[in-house]
Amino acid sequence: MDSHRLLKIGLFGFGCVGQGLYDILSREEALPYKVERICVKDPKKLRPLPTESFTYDPLEVLQDESLDILVEAISDANEAYTIVTEALRRGKKVVTANKKLVAYHLPELLQLQQEFGGVLLYEAAVAGGIPIIRTVEEYFSNEPLERVHGILNGSSNYILSQIFKLQKGYAEALKEAQDKGFAELDPWLDVAGADSRHKLCILTAHAFGRPIAPEEVAFFGIDYLSGEDCDFAKKNGSVIKMVASAHLTSDGELVPVVLPSLVDASDDLFVVEQEFNGVVVQGAYSGAQLFKGRGAGGHPTGAAVLSDIVSINSGYSYGYKKLHKTTNAPALALDFEFEVYLRSSEPDLIVSLGLTNLQNVQRENDSFSVIGTVSLGNLIREQEQIRKAGAYIMALSSDFVGAHVKRSKERVQVS
């Protein structure tokens, strides 16, 4: 191999993703890429490489003109922001795996690329090894999309699989997910739905040409899931999946939400189990297509980073075709309605959520569960109250788009 073609990579972070990439490159010797410098934060942390392999000063890597590509793979979104924005100001080619960074700062990151001529790719930030951003960005660049939805968090999906497949309790399933490295020690981002929200924000920008701020997305998770909620699902021939969804209404308004949902065997997402992710892309003409793969882990995510490295090296950058086509970005459909199941100990929530079409499901000691209809606007406005109350809320079907209300009413059993 021509030694001049060896591309040098500067790597920030040597955790799950950084080590995954490093490991793939050490095994695939034919690839013309080499991790030349690695910047980490904690000098005392035990790592599988000798200490002289690392630097602890990000500027050393940012200022190194011999490096061709920079890869950011650290977990702290604020530090990632500092590194990535500085790299883009220097006109560098950058690959990141940090979804929170991209979700919160996409318009600014776009601006920096235009202004200084750098390039940023972030396939690894959404759905691990599934090439979903590129698929939506390229394959569906000219076809209008009606909806993009799916299971975007492997940790919570693994927990739900243990609960429904193996009848484990939530706490036991969560501990197992942590022991296997699927869930963080502080699992809030995963189980409360915030991680899925970040990924949905990024997908929505590519799918519908509208970058949405995380604050515009109502998100709910499984952190308050109880046995009786699971029993309700089973009684209705369903399992529970945490679904992140964005779709356009018939008026062309956008509905972004992360909501645990009842999913039965007829649903595309029913087969997405354990730590896998699954994304359904629904084109106006091509219909629904399911993309399924490993959503987390060093090798799948490292492989997505590698794919970006190869692409960025061959001159690829996101065209943001839908973003440039969309003169009027779609507004949020705040009056769009979902049919939901709510379990709480605070009756006031029914009033503040403006629940209509109420049906009682169960009353026990100090808590109750009901079915009702709620608007997107109320879900966004009241989400903190729902969390503070320790209440659990889920959709009666993952088909948020329209026809589900009548159908789910017909089959939902209320005890």
UniProtKB/TrEMBL annotation:
State the pathway, as annotated in the record: Amino-acid biosynthesis; L-threonine biosynthesis; L-threonine from L-aspartate: step 3/5; Amino-acid biosynthesis; L-methionine biosynthesis via de novo pathway; L-homoserine from L-aspartate: step 3/3
Give all residue intervals belonging to the Aspartate/homoserine dehydrogenase NAD-binding domain: 13-123
Segments spanning the bilayer are none
Question: Which domain of life does the UniProt lineage start with?
Answer: Bacteria
Q: Does the keyword Iron-sulfur apply?
A: no
User: Which Enzyme Commission number(s) are listed?
Assistant: 1.1.1.3
- The residue ranges of the Homoserine dehydrogenase catalytic domain are 131-310
A biological process from GO = threonine biosynthetic process
Q: Which InterPro entries is this protein grouped with?
A: Asp/hSer_DH_NAD-bd, HDH_cat, HDH_CS, NAD(P)-bd_dom_sf
Keywords carried by this UniProt record: Amino-acid biosynthesis, Methionine biosynthesis, NADP, Oxidoreductase, Threonine biosynthesis
- MF annotations from Gene Ontology: homoserine dehydrogenase activity; NADP binding
The record lists the catalysed reaction(s) as: L-homoserine + NADP(+) = L-aspartate 4-semialdehyde + NADPH + H(+)
Q: Which family does it belong to?
A: Belongs to the homoserine dehydrogenase family.
**Name recorded for this polypeptide:** Homoserine dehydrogenase
